[in-house]
Amino acid sequence: MQLDAWDVIIVGAGAAGLMCAITAGKRGRRVLVLESADRPGKKILMSGGGRCNFTNLHVESDNFLSDNLNFCKSALSCYTQWDFIELVCKHDIQYHEKTLGQLFCDSSSKDILNMLLIEAEKAKVTITTKCLIDKYETRERSEKNFTLYTNQGKFTTKSLIVASGGLSVPTLGGSDIGYRLAEQFGHKITLLRPALVPFTFTDSFKLLSEKLSGLSLPVRLSTGKHQFLESVLFTHRGLSGPAVLQISSYWREGQSIRLDLLPFTDCFQHLVKQKFEQPRAVLRTIISQLLPRNLVLELEKCWWLEKKEVPIAELSETLIQTLADSIHSWELKPSGTEGYRTAEVTLGGVETGEVSSKTMESKRQPGLYFVGEILDVTGHLGGFNFQWAWASGFAAGKVA
Ligand SMILES: Cc1cc2nc3c(=O)[nH]c(=O)nc-3n(C[C@H](O)[C@H](O)[C@H](O)COP(=O)(O)OP(=O)(O)OC[C@H]3O[C@@H](n4cnc5c(N)ncnc54)[C@H](O)[C@@H]3O)c2cc1C
Question: Which are the contacts of 398, defined by CB distance < 8 A and separation ≥ 6?
């Protein structure tokens, strides 16, 4: 390998790093990607349950969290979901919309990674795996600005792209190197938190969730002014499922969440109607017509144990109203989350105020770029995080 011959060095061969490498390589830039893992794109392979939810049909800035939501707009409009879908089609990868515009591979995430690696090879990109960076230096006004010292030698470059992702899932490459590097150049890092992550409980709900483990149902889940209408999954340690992962990005320690177990039914109206239609039936029977029976049996213990054998005709409307309110607004207090071990993303990152929204270049250090999850741009569940990785990688790759 010619050690000093790189125009662009990219730290991290994940989604954003590979897209950036392909884009810069296609422009004739000599691109080297340094990857610490033994292979590129580990998160891509594990994503979407092995089928990679690679983008979403409806990408808007509202699908992201950031201290400055305007920041992501430019990159997302220069490289859209349609651009990525075109690439996927060019490689004859079969895909389908699962729900809510989420696009998944029909076969395997490997299709997406292979596509990126083929494109990288065509663009003459060099990818070096098992590469550990010891330190980096900059030289003011020298032709090659950055020098990286690694276990595989010394590399210098004019453009250094930090694409090392966030802290989530250390076994898949989650690391803090990008944040440390950013801080070394004077960049501020916003508060980092695990996001798109299951909730854990230590109160009586833990026992209940354990008993119901494996049960999934559609709910409306909210915290503060944020709400998601998706499914929730009871687990041995608490709650997971799309609605929970989504709301976890907005939840903070000590806050409650509210579960509407019947988001499409007016429970009070329904129960009052049943007083006339099946007056001898007990609540358990009636509610089991709307919700899974094992859940109803647990709710009965919590909410109407003393009236469990009383026919609905004999229950007061006040009691029915209280019960309907509980079903539509079950308040729970998570004790925490599963943390970075399983979080799909890291919320927060390099503050966007000192990064160009058009090119991802640092406003503090010419030639230094940040792309992907390392930035303070975090997508909702549903392919938005990959779309951000493709778009921001493309934005930097066009100019670096
Ligand atoms: C289990 C799981 C499933 C997911 N599923 C989806 C999904 O279906 N759809 C979706 O949109 N998003 C999904 N995500 C989120 C998505 O994977 C990330 O948002 C996206 O990969 C971020 O891209 P990135 O390139 O910024 O970082 P990454 O893809 O994390 O890539 C960073 C790369 O940098 C490397 N690296 C780290 N430290 C160093 C270092 N010191 N030196 C060199 N290299 C280093 C890492 O090994 C890694 O290869 C999922 C995440 C997880 C954990």
Answer: 23, 24, 27, 78, 359
CA atoms within a 13 Å half-sphere pointing along the CA-CB vector of 41: 26
Decide if 199 contacts 336 (C-beta within 8 A).
yes
- Whether pTM > 0.85 for this model: the answer is yes
Which residues, 6 or more positions from 104, have their beta carbon under 8 angstroms from its beta carbon?
Answer: 48, 51, 52, 53, 54, 95, 96, 97, 98
Give percent of the chain with pLDDT exceeding 90: 96
Q: How far is the CA of 47 from the centre of ligand 1 (A)?
A: 9
Residue (of 44, 42, 41, 20) closest to 32 by Cα position: 20
What is the rounded distance in angstroms from the CA atom of residue 135 to the CA atom of residue 152? 12
CA 232/CA 258 separation, integer angstroms: 12
Q: Could you report the per-residue pLDDT of 54-91, keeping only the tens digit for each?
A: 999 999 999 999 999 999 999 999 999 999 999 999 99
Q: What CA–CA distance (Å, rounded) separates 288 from 120?
A: 55
> For the chain, what percentages of helix, strand and coil (3-state, to nearest 5) are there?
40, 25, 40
Q: How far is the CA of 64 from the centre of ligand 1 (A)?
A: 17
Question: Are the C-beta atoms of 241 and 247 separated by less than 8 Å?
Answer: no
Query: What is the CB-side half-sphere exposure of residue 173 using CA atoms within 13 A?
Result: 29
Instruction: Report the atom number in ligand 1 closest to the C-alpha of 55.
Output: 11
Q: Does the C-beta of 116 come closer than 6 Å to ligand 1? A: no
- The HSE-up count of residue 62 (CA atoms within 13 Å, CB side) is 3
Q: What are the structural domains of the chain?
A: 6-193+343-397 (3.50.50.60), 198-337 (2.40.30.10)
Q: What is the dihedral of CA 379, 383, 389, 391, to 10 degrees?
A: -100
